[in-house]
Amino acid sequence: MADQTTTQANDAAVVAGDTAAAGTIDAASGAGAAVAADGAAGDRPVKIVGIVCNWCSYAGADTAGTGRFKQPPNLRLIRVPCTGRVDPLFALKAFEKGADGVLISGCHPGDCHYSEGNYYARRKFELLERMIHHLGIPKERFRWTWVSASEGQRWQQVVTEFVAGVEKLGPREGRAL
Amino acid sequence: MSRQDHIREFAAQALADGRVDYFIGWKQGYNSSEVVPAFVKDPADVDQLIWTPLCHHNLVTFIKRNMPDPADAKIGLCVKGCDSRTLVALLQEELVDKEKLYVVGVPCDGIVDRRKLEKEFADELVDIAFPERGRVVVTTGKGETREFAQDDVLLDVCGRCRYPNALYADDVAGPLEAEPDREESGPDWSDIADFENLSDDEKQAALERVYATCIRCFACVHVCPVCVCWDKCVNRSREPELVAQKVGAKENLLFQMIHMFHVAGRCTSCGACDRACPVEIPLYLLHRKMNKEIYDMFGFEPGTKLDEKPVFQLFDLATDHFGD
Ligand code: SF4
Ligand code: SF4
């Protein structure tokens, strides 16, 4: 199990695409893959890559943790400075590397730490989402949204819903991307 | 005076005046069934320049990112309507220097898809002639000759062309072609409808099948007029290895998706990548879909207005409601 966790961390590092981001990988969301998720189809828990901005959603996940809101343990978080830093490649690479779902989250429009990063980002995410569906990757496996630092509860809700959606479909195996 | 004569005259003049160091056009290839790009340096050589419905090459590829040799060369080139859009896309992002260019617009009534013709015959083609507008006469190595109507053997992109005349040019080779009523009807995306209507599983299976055959020759990115990173390409970076060297369907599809996202907002769906691919991967399924969605999201047609900025370099607080 330790091995599996390491592999996931390595995969996440590749997804992040640079060592600075790789250094910030954090299993903030739970105790690792050791806990089999309830109701997961297939024979392994689903693996989900979460790409979150440092200022809002990462802090929001922290708030959720501090508040001891129960969350599914399937998420691996990659912290990036801003959603504006998120290249669509990150999500596609995560799918290539075997992620069962990808969740991207950052500051609400208007709240970007760098004023306008998420304004550029949302245009890219919208296209990314449409293209991901075009590739035949079901809607339930990709989501992008906004969660602020104070929205621990919203973070819990987003993650719980997203993981439930991915679990319903089960692990992805032998796919084109 | 034919368009070909115009091109020769413009080229000779520009070379003689020293307005350009060389002129890029099209000339006959290894036989009269094929056309290749031509680089003319001497006004005495302009007679090799031709204009026929086989001139499919988008010559803008040769000037992308000011890559020509020498770096400060002044260059003349021919552009069809579709080619001009890729040039406008480069100009919008200041990726080429307008001052160093001399552009001859060539109004175009459709380019013939040589691959469609090849598939009609068992032998190689040795001659493709155009006795008059609309007629295509093909001769094979064994002497077989058949005639086609030009409209039946056009490139698929030409069937849906919205911009037959150059959108940016210093001179125009002859009278303009009739323009479709663009106000009346938007772009036609029917070519990707079949794929869009597949189920998720069928799409994945289809992509797996086609992308398994990609040999990662990179012809598609080399020929792409707006794929500009050139020697700094993420797809070929070995350190760090961002895209696996392994040639499998997954890796190939990821590579192609990167190509698509990197040209999003600049890609005009010119189709050069589809034509360059030696294993005939239907790349249009990706770039046409991308442009369809960009049109749907922003009403934006890449490379059509010189004073526009590409949509991914901007945002608009009043109209962007994505993710709300
Ligand atoms: S990706 Fe293909 S269709 Fe788009 S501009 Fe490049 S060569 Fe043309
Ligand atoms: S031209 Fe075709 S085979 Fe070559 S890298 Fe591009 S998609 Fe692959």
Task: Give an overview of the whole structure.
The complex is a heterodimer of chains A (177) and B (324). Chain A is α/β, with parallel strands linked by helices and 177 residues long. Helices cover 42% and strands 13% of the residues of chain A. Chain A folds into 2 domains: 2-39, no CATH class; 44-169, 3-Layer(aba) Sandwich (Rossmann fold). In chain A, helix 1 (2-16) runs antiparallel to helix 4 and helix 3 packs across helix 6. The two termini of chain A are 25 Å apart. The model of chain A is unreliable at 1-41 (pLDDT under 50). Chain B has 324 residues and is α/β, with parallel strands linked by helices. Chain B folds into 3 domains: 1-111 and 157-184, no CATH class; 112-153; 190-313, no CATH class. Chain B has 10 helices and 8 strands. Chain B has helices spanning 3-16, 81-92, 114-118, 156-159, 193-196, 200-211, 219-223, 249-263, 272-276, 284-298, and strands spanning 22-28, 35-40, 75-79, 101-105, 125-129, 135-140, 145-149, 171-172. Chain B has a 5-stranded mixed beta sheet. A 3-stranded antiparallel beta sheet of chain B has the order 5-6-7, with no helix packed on it. The model of chain B has no long low-confidence stretch (mean pLDDT 93). The structure holds iron/sulfur cluster (2 copies). Residues 214-220, 256, 276-279, 281 of chain B line the site of one iron/sulfur cluster.
